[in-house]
Amino acid sequence: MQGLNQTTLIPILMKKVYLLLLFCTVSVLSFGQMFFYESFDAGQMPPTGWTIDGIPAQWSASNSNNAGGNPPEAKFTYTNGTTTTRLISPMVDLSGKTSVKFSFTHYYDWYSNPAPKVGVATRSHSGAWTSVYEITPTGNVGPVSVDIDITNGDVGQSEFQVCIYLNGNMFNLDYYYCDNLLLYTPLNLDAGLVSISATPTYFSDPVDVKGTIMNLGTTTINHFDVTWQKDGEPSVYLTGFTGLSIPQQGTYDFTSAFPLGAAIGSHNLKVWISNINGDVDDNQNDDTLTKVVNRVCNVIPRVPLCEEFTSSTCSPCAQFNADFVPWCNDKDTAITLIKYQMNWPSPGDPYYTEEGGVRRDYYGVGFVPDLYTNGAEVATDISAVQAAYDQATAQIGMMKMVVSHTLAGHVITVDATVLPFTNFTNCHVYIVVMEQITYNNHMTNGETSFEHVMMKMLPDAGGTAVSFTDRVPVSFHQVADLTATHMERWNDIIVGVFVQDDATREVYQSIYSMENGTFNTEARLENILVNSVSVPGFSPDVFTYNVTLPGGTTNVPDIVGTPMDPKETVIVVPGISLPGSSTIDVFSESLKEHNLYTVNYSFAVGQKENKADNVSVAPNPTSGMIRIYGAPHSTITIYSGSGVLCRTLNDFTGPSLNLTDLSKGVYILNIQKEDNTVIRKKVVLL
Question: For position 493, what pLDDT does the model report?
Fold first, then answer.
């Protein structure tokens, strides 16, 4: 039952669910039988540790499943020239091995004979390549799985590598796709945790912990347990799955019975499998995966970005646009639409630009029409377009943007501000100047008008590289002379802006600019409610409040900030402890003005906070070094005043704790003692 999923199994499964409130360690053996499994889940090409030899620009990570796996997959796009290209694995230590198995799925999109050969080769110590599998396609191949037993002289070496290669006239294929590249030696009982990428990286509400296991042994798997743990905390969460029948190299997609919830910020998720068929499997080195997940502080709708590569000399483009243009017009500002006119079929669209060529190469576009929604390739039929739109709008929006532009003669000025709701690295901000409708580039396909034609990208097609910090707005200012563009009517300009991940190509947010736009600067609150009651003595210009909680209160109070201007962005970051603090970030409509309100809540003297508290922290305030007394062998978690997890220490014996690597400010120490008593201390770092 390869590819079996939990939904399918509900009628036949007996699910066991356990909650273990104890600290668990996973033993890791010193040997491993799954040497690598590459499913291109990271969406980058080449993947970490891999290399490409020969025309690397033609390889990409494609959000498609043509090879028969799950998106994304590796994709090679045709080009001119007769050569060899290789997708090369990391070095693997096969010392002591006499044989190894290599398996993968692939699809060969043939174009003409003689087509390039596709094969698998091995080498050791960076020496010569030895082919162990090769075919010469005379038509499309696959999707099909390939399993190879490798027993040549490279096996047994300490620096073993394997590659998938293409050799020949690279114009005589359209595309080559491959996925799920696995190098392993089978044992009797061996389950491998091969992916947890289905667990969302970003979330606001609690999310399911999901993943995939593969049977790497010769024994059919009928039972396994999945356990997950967050930030090394004492609590672990176990779900058992029974009634299975997973054959060798079969996979199973699982969902834990326990959703993942967390405080705002980044967290380390650890997932492992155990109890395979009620026993310890023969190789535990492939049983554990970790992932960094992020709970965002705010959510807004995500506006999908549609990028179409098209041409006025392309008849299929006209056929697709006959449906796509009305669909886009119906969506209006619910999407951001950009069209890149291409220079083929010959003679190509006269409005082709080199910047459009850069975007074409970025995605590895090899035909028109070709459509991408939020960075993922979409089939050019309206049912697929609608499905991609539905999927994109179901994703949370994790940043907010405001953009305005002005035109003075032929010189355009664009100002954009981005407010992120979590941390992002390796992003690019793209600013695209378009003409809403052009007419003068009609050629041979019957179309006489063209919408949202890209004229100029600012500062260029590479965009602006940037990393974002949670709730820290970043502004962009670009000026360009459009005189040399194909602009037909200077009162017909539209500007689109989007933020895209450089590795995965996911588009996090997009927006149209407002011409001559002005935005409000008010960034204050009209009121603060604590458990639906106005905070005493509230004033818009007073930013700190102290609230005394009734005795017996066990939950962090519900805090609501009422905006002075309905166009403000108000973000409440709840406290994580009692006593504690909640903060309210208020950003103006322009996103440039900001105020921070703080609500501190505590109990009356002599009430709850003093019970069972024999723990002391000194000095406080501190310049960095503190001593903690009365809490041997405790678990200490350190949170910032805004609720972001900074550090976790298990089995702290102390007494000294060094905080000098943290920024100045207020921190909460959550101290869980050996008897599970929890003491919370506020520490001021000077």
Answer: 98
Distance CA 466, CA 399 (A): 14
- The answer to whether 478 touches 440, Cβ cutoff 8 Å, is no
Do residues 609 and 634 lie in contact, with contact meaning Cβ atoms separated by under 8 Å? no
Burial of 279 (C-beta count, 10 Å sphere; 0-12/13-18/19+): exposed
Polymer length of the chain? 686
**Cα–Cα distance between 372 and 385 in angstroms, integer?**
9
Q: Answer whether 44's CB lies under 8 Å from 504's CB.
A: yes
**3-state DSSP of 240-274:** EEEEEEECCCCEEEEECCCCECCCCEEEEEEEEEE
* Alpha-carbon dihedral angle through residues 562, 563, 569, 571, given to the nearest 10 degrees: -30
Average pLDDT, stretch 454-466? Answer: 98
What is the DSSP-derived secondary structure letter of residue 172?
G
**Cβ atoms of 264 and 296 closer than 8 Å:** yes
At residue 248, φ and ψ (nearest 5 deg) are -55, 130
The domain 612-685 belongs to what CATH superfamily?
Penicillin-binding protein Tp47, domain D (2.60.40.1270)
Residue 179, pLDDT > 70, answer: yes
Residue showing tokens 């996979």: 251
Record: fold of 525-603 = Immunoglobulin-like (2.60.40)
Q: How far apart are CA 546 and CA 536, in angstroms?
A: 9
Tell whether the model's pLDDT for residue 22 goes beyond 80.
no
Distance CA 622, CA 667 (A): 11
Q: Say which residue the tokens 């000025």 belong to.
A: 413
Q: For 480-509, what is the mean pLDDT?
A: 96
DSSP symbol at 663: P
Instruction: Give the pLDDT score at 616.
Output: 76
Superfamily of domain 300-515 in CATH is Immunoglobulins (2.60.40.10)
Model confidence pTM above 0.85: no
| Crossing angle (nearest 10°) for helices 382-393 and 315-331 | 40
Average pLDDT over residues 82-109: 96
List the one residue out of 40, 49, 80, 76 whose CA is nearest residue 60. Answer: 76
Pair of tokens at residue 83: 């050569």
Q: Side chain identity at 184, as an amino acid letter?
A: Y
Report pLDDT for 605: 63
Cβ atoms within 10 Å, residue 560: 14
Residue type for 485, please?
A: T
Contact (CB, 8 A) for 673 and 635: no
CA dist 36 and 161 (Å) reads 11
Tokens of 667: 């921190």
Locate the domains of the chain by residue range.
Answer: 4-32+187-292, 34-184, 300-515, 525-603, 612-685
Does residue 21 surpass a pLDDT of 50? no
Structurally, at CATH architecture level, domain 4-32+187-292 sits in Sandwich (2.60)
The residue written with tokens 């090879």 in the block is 67
Q: In degrees rounded to 5, what are phi and psi of residue 626?
A: -130, 160
Q: Which two tokens stand for residue 256?
A: 């834990």
Q: How confident is the model at residue 67 (pLDDT cuts 50, 70, 90)?
A: very high
Does 168 or 654 have the greater pLDDT score? 168
Split at pLDDT 50, 70, 90, the class of 10 is: very low
> Domain 34-184 belongs to what architecture?
Sandwich (2.60)
300-515 and 612-685 share one fold: yes
> Beta-strand (E) ranges in 296-335?
300-301, 305-310
CA 174, distance to chain mean position in Å, is 29
